[in-house]
Specification:
3% strand, 308 residues
Length: 308
């Protein structure tokens, strides 16, 4: 067996350009970060690190969960990813974030269900990595994803080749309509042999913004009922295994005042916090007695897209 330290220094000392090794090195660090998280929070695979998030109201729609698992949501990018996962046991990391974002943000289904499915279907499943990333996607981990990925733009599949491979019933559609077939003219659908609701399912979420508003409202209700875990800056507080308390990064749209109202962003703020479609960096600093350990836990969280 090779230790991650041996691999790290072997690659570092190989004399290769930084651009060729930085992603590999970063993923080695993420691997150890996830293992550290699991050692500190051994119930991380099923219990929120932000303990008060256990009272979050999630949808119990079993049919929607099944549609997501089997790639029958009516959103081609999501369906392609989930079918690829089930057939091969693997999925590209950028697509993993699309399907995870869809499950949590738009279906309102618990991250625990997503983590379980990924752990059962990934051939390279790692309990620590899988749990850490689903916790962050579900907003209950040490970090929170600072973006929401659209399930309908197809930006991860500009040629359409990925969707055509895994959703062959749509293969005849022009690329401009491939990732959102409900927007295609009836004649275009007919020419491609596509009948929505028959050869390919209707979207299980017809109004994405409305669906996300429901999920966000559930989170805000939970946070407003747990103000003992809300600091003066509107950040979540967690209790470490040592009994110490520290704060963790909380997106601006989820920050509350001491009275449970939405906290306005700082004047002129340009940092993390609002829902975005791109990956951003930065985050809240730890404070209080647990700052030293929280600093260790947070190391490496700046680029969420680097490892899932």
């Amino acid at each position: 067996q090779l230790s991650p330290r041996a691999l790290h220094f072997a690659v570092r000392d190989a004399g290769l350009p930084r651009e060729q090794v930085k992603t590999f090195a970063r993923r080695l660090h993420w691997r150890d970060l996830a293992s550290f998280h699991l050692s500190v929070f051994p119930e991380m695979p099923w219990r929120p690190i932000r303990a008060h998030y256990a009272s979050h109201e999630w949808s119990g729609d079993a049919s929607a969960l099944r549609a997501w698992q089997r790639g029958n949501t009516g959103f081609p990018m999501v369906d392609a990813g989930m079918r690829c996962l089930y057939a091969t046991g693997w999925m590209h990391q950028s697509v993993r974030m699309v399907v995870a974002s869809f499950l949590i943000e738009y279906l309102g289904i618990s991250w625990v269900d997503g983590a379980r499915w990924f752990h059962d279907t990934l051939v390279d499943a790692d309990l620590a990595i899988n749990s850490m990333m689903w916790q962050n996607a579900g907003r209950s981990g040490i970090d929170q994803w600072n973006f929401v990925l659209s399930p309908e733009t197809g930006s991860q599949d500009p040629s359409g080749g990925y969707v055509r491979k895994w959703v062959p019933e749509l293969a005849g559609l022009p690329t401009k309509h491939l990732h959102a077939p409900w927007k295609a003219p009836a004649a275009t659908l007919s020419a491609a042999g596509v009948e929505l609701g028959a050869t390919y399912p209707h979207r299980i979420v017809p109004d994405l913004p409305a669906a996300r508003r429901i999920t966000v409202a559930a989170l805000l209700r939970m946070r407003a009922s747990s103000l003992d875990f809300n600091d003066a800056g509107g950040y979540d507080l967690i209790t470490l295994p040592t009994g110490e308390t520290t704060r963790v990064f909380t997106k601006q749209e989820f920050r509350l005042t001491a009275s449970g109202l939405l906290k306005p962003p700082p004047s002129g703020s340009r940092g993390r916090g609002s829902a975005r479609s791109r990956h951003t960096s930065g985050g809240g600093r730890a404070s209080g007695r647990g700052a030293q350990l929280q600093g260790k836990v947070s190391t490496g969280q700046k680029k969420i897209s680097s490892f899932f």
